[in-house]
Amino acid sequence: MNQFSWDQRIHRAERLAAEHPAAAEMLRFYAQVARFQKGVYKRLKAQARSELQPACLEPDFADLLRLVQRIGPAAMAARARELETQHRTFAEITAEDAPEDFVFFARVLLQPYMECMLNGSRPAAQASASRCPACGERPQAAVLRGEGDGAKRWLLCSLCGNEWEFRRIVCPNCGEEDHRRLPVYSAAQFAHVRIEACDRCHTYLKAVDLSKNGLAVPHVDELATVALNLWAEQSGYHAMQPNIFGL
Q1: CB 240 within 8 A of CB 203
Q2: Radius of gyration of the chain (CA)
Q3: Which residue positions in the chain have pLDDT lower than 50?
Q4: What is the DSSP code (8-state) at residue 68?
Q5: Burial of 231 per CB tally in 10 Å (0-12, 13-18, 19+)
Q6: Closest to 86 (Cα-Cα) out of 73, 104, 99
Q7: What is the pLDDT of residue 50?
Q8: Rounded distance between C-alpha atoms, residue 40 and residue 93, angstroms
Q9: Among positive and negative, which fits the CA dihedral 206, 14, 105, 125?
Q10: What was the pLDDT predicted at 26?
Q11: What pLDDT does 19 receive?
């Protein structure tokens, strides 16, 4: 079950856009995309669950292409225009062999669809699972919540938004448990967000600590801290699962 509503994501993106000029353009664009996703989600929720199939997203795909052409960054708007001109279908952009630059358009629609399919349920936590127990996708970020003298770590699914509990000192990608091979990096301007990296598989995941900032929305704060991505990449790590913008 997703812990953060569409409105929370939209409002957080707008607030952080005003606070972080370096990420403002991306955050404002995300806020508009999240509004669009909220509309898709509401429409799907009004339908019987038995009627929900990926094909029902075809009309939304046409609307998304027009939205991105109107408000998206130049390169992304050009790609949306190209997809519309080529009369591409939603089925084509979600095919297994679809080009990598189709991922943004596919995920924008699949995220509200999968959240709707999850339908408020919470799959049982799997302490050793590195993939979402609800849909099988990789995590976009980790979420830390205070408990007792410490904090528990949850992984946030990059597709359906489900969270599942995961051990603190272990790499979700390869299972490395030696804390000496699991470096952590943070920056003063983002005290509640840190990079959790692994020197064995050279991947990283951002962790958003809600015990340090209760107003944070992991989906959004992960996007706002793009400066941390630069440090990770310069240090030889790559994202375990790129976010909706491929970062």
Answers
A1: yes
A2: 18
A3: 127-128
A4: H
A5: middle
A6: 99
A7: 74
A8: 18
A9: positive
A10: 94
A11: 92
pLDDT of res. 49: 75
Q: Which residues contact 211 (CB under 8 A, 6 or more apart)?
A: 144, 145, 146, 151
Note the pLDDT tens digit of each residue in 192-210.
999 999 999 999 999 999 9
Q: Which residues pair with 166 in a beta bridge?
A: 153
Distance of CA 103 to the CA centre of its chain: 12
Supply the pTM of this predicted model: 0.92
DSSP string, 146-208: EETTEEEEEEEESSS--EEEE-SSS-TTT----GGG--EEE-GGGTTEEEEE-TTT-EEEEEE
Rounded to whole angstroms, how far apart are CA atoms 205 and 195? 6
Distance of CA 192 to CAs 64, 73, 179, Å? 33, 28, 20
Instruction: Quote the pLDDT of residue 75.
Output: 94
Amino acid, res. 199: D
- b/e sequence 102-128, b meaning 16+ C-beta within 10 Å: bbbbbbbbbbbbbbbbbeeeebeeeee
Q: How far apart are CA 76 and CA 224, in angstroms?
A: 19
> In angstroms, rounded to a whole number, what is the distance separating the alpha carbons of residues 5 and 114?
14
Residue 33 neighbours by CB distance under 10 Å: 24
Output b/e per residue, 170-183; b: 16+ Cβ within 10 A.
bbbbeebeeeeebe
Amino acid at 83: L
Helical segments of the chain, H only: 6-19, 24-45, 58-71, 74-85, 90-93, 103-118, 218-224, 226-234
